[in-house]
Amino acid sequence: MAIYEKSYISIDESIAQQVGYPYPTPKLTFDFPPHLIETCMVHGRPWVHRGETLARFANEFDLRVIVELGVWRGETFERLLEQCPAAKVYGIDRWAPAPEAAAGAPEDWAEWPHEDHLAKVQAIASGHPGRAHVFRMETVTAAALFNTCSVDMVFVDADHSYNGVISDIDAWLPKIRSGGWIFGHDIDWTTVRAAVHDRLGYDLEYGMDALWAWKVP
Ligand SMILES: C[S@@+](CC[C@H](N)C(=O)[O-])C[C@H]1O[C@@H](n2cnc3c(N)ncnc32)[C@H](O)[C@@H]1O
Fold this sequence. Notes:
The protein contains seven helices and ten strands. The protein is α/β, with parallel strands linked by helices. It has one domain: 3-Layer(aba) Sandwich (Rossmann fold), CATH 3.40.50. Helix 6 (about 160-170) links the parallel strand 8 (about 150-155) and strand 9 (about 175-185). The structure holds S-adenosylmethionine (SAM).
């Protein structure tokens, strides 16, 4: 049976076809320690939720100030809080449809039950007093609330348009300390991939659940 090997991930061919593996492999500038990513089965498919990877990564490298851009209903936010007991986690989301200015973005978020999502995230946060912080605002605006080099990890997962990802990287990169990490979701989107390429170069690793990652020099 053919096995696709991609750095640390091995999955059999039939499953690989179902999930579209292997992705094209970019030039790597770092390796995730193998134990940080484990293949698991979810609904019959191998998959590791982005939050699991981020939490393991944060624990491995002692990343204690974590910002998630685009929280949605808290799937990643909750995992980070539960699995990283030493970390403060800041979740930023507008929880509203995209404004007119964002017309042309790949998603306008118009149909989503944002108030329900916010309520769910606030409930999650209430279980972690002092460590969970929720900001209902634009991701770029929120960057002004953080000092330069004060953040250990940023997870970019809000506006997936090219300009949206560029704006988030530009606003948040200066907030991450040297040796910290910027992660993002959906590198398999053309818009996301182009923005990450143009800002950070294509020397990126990404694993299951279409994560991208870059270590701040
Ligand atoms: C894909 S979901 C985030 C998923 C979440 N990170 C997770 O891992 O489960 C994107 C979220 O980003 C929010 N969003 C999009 N653009 C935004 C912006 N410019 N400022 C704040 N929130 C934004 C949307 O409201 C939506 O809830």
